[in-house]
Amino acid sequence: MREAISIPPTKDNLLKHKRKLQLVEKAYDLLREKYEALLLKVHIIIAEATTLREKMEKNLSEAYIEYIKTEAELGRDMINFFSETVPKEVTIDSKPLEYMGVLYSNLSIDHLPEISYGFFGISSLLWVTARRFREVFDSVVQLAEIETLAFKIMNDLQSIQLNLNALDKIYRVRFQNVIKYIEDILESTELENIYTIKKLKQKIENKKQRKR
After folding, report:
1. 19-65, pLDDT tens digit by residue?
2. 104 close to 118: Cβ distance less than 8 angstroms
3. Cβ distance 179 to 17 under 8 Å?
4. Per the CB 3.0–4.6 Å rule, which of 14, 105, 138, 192 could disulfide with 182?
5. Per-domain residue ranges of the chain
């Protein structure tokens, strides 16, 4: 259903709504450019995340293989005992960053406890296993950062899409309708004025001819 228009059909209002339409068009173009740039970025991030996840899963698989070897040599009880000697506190550094208006955090490992099994004189397999799992932890932090960024960009894309739809389907149509409404009435009024002027001229000419 077409929206009722109650705006006075004046030239001033026509100019105002033409300017408003220009602003809508400009805002739409800028938002569209941002949408396409973020869409490209999220595709790049997804590709990076896929590669990183594959690397992480490979490292995790290799770490579990080393763990199985270590468990076979030392036994699970001994591994559990040694694991209790390692400090559990891990510190993740988070720095706020922004990409095209999207806020996210740059994550990095600020502190990861060092392995300290040497004084037990145990198998080197435990060192290898621990080192493997430390490498996996690095990948997990990196993956958390880029997947969080991808998630936030996708949320922003949804918001931008809603704004684009509003600009295109609501505001653009509304101002176009108002402009057409005013132009039609002004054109009709102008034609009516021209017709009235011609009638007056004709009457004046007729009067002049009668006087002769």
Report:
1. 999 999 999 999 999 999 999 999 999 999 999 889 888 888 888 88
2. no
3. yes
4. 14
5. 11-200
